[in-house]
Amino acid sequence: QRDVSWTLQKSVDLLNFQLFGKAPVAPISMNEINNGIAVPQVSFIDRELIDNQDIKADHQSVVDGQQRLTTNFKAYTNHPDFRNIVLDISKATFRIVEGAITTNHVPVGILLNESDTLLENYLTENSLITELYPLMLKVRSKIRGYNYTINIAENLTEDEQIEWFE
User: Fold this and answer.
1) What is the pLDDT of residues 71-80, one digit of tens each?
2) Structural contact between residues 29 and 62, judged by C-beta atoms closer than 8 angstroms
3) Could you report the per-residue pLDDT of 94-109, keeping only the tens digit for each?
4) How many angstroms separate the first and last alpha carbons of the chain?
5) pTM of the full structure
6) In whole angstroms, how far apart are CA 4 and each of 11, 51, 68, 74?
7) Is residue 22 within 8 Å of 92, Cβ to Cβ?
8) What beta strand segments (E) does the chain contain?
9) What is the DSSP code (8-state) at residue 104?
């Protein structure tokens, strides 16, 4: 797989597609490696090469879908790269903000974070819990319920992965 290359806007576009379901999203393709084939592997987010000796168990390698998975993972972990991506309540859309985040904005890393408490605390601290909490739970639920088709191949070599991807 290539490096993480999507712009913030491309990530915002994906989040909006997932929220509104306006366009189909390509499937995610994985190579399940369980026979010890030494296919070079890189870590999911920082894209650093992993020493094959550090890979002790069966694992899955992303052949197609790295950018989509990374976008969702960064939102889920409140990654600093996404600090300017918000759900703009006044426009009902995800967007990039320049400058201060206002009460019309819920940061994507707060909204879609793995911790439900983070969203609750954010809305409480901004005096929005009563009016926005039910709506934000619906948005959160819709994004988390978004489905991808996952194709899984087994034990492809590096050349076979490239051929499958193409």
Assistant:
1) 999 999 999 9
2) yes
3) 999 999 999 899 999 9
4) 12
5) 0.80
6) 11, 20, 10, 11
7) no
8) 28-33, 41-42, 49-50, 59-64, 85-88, 93-96, 105-107, 150-154
9) T
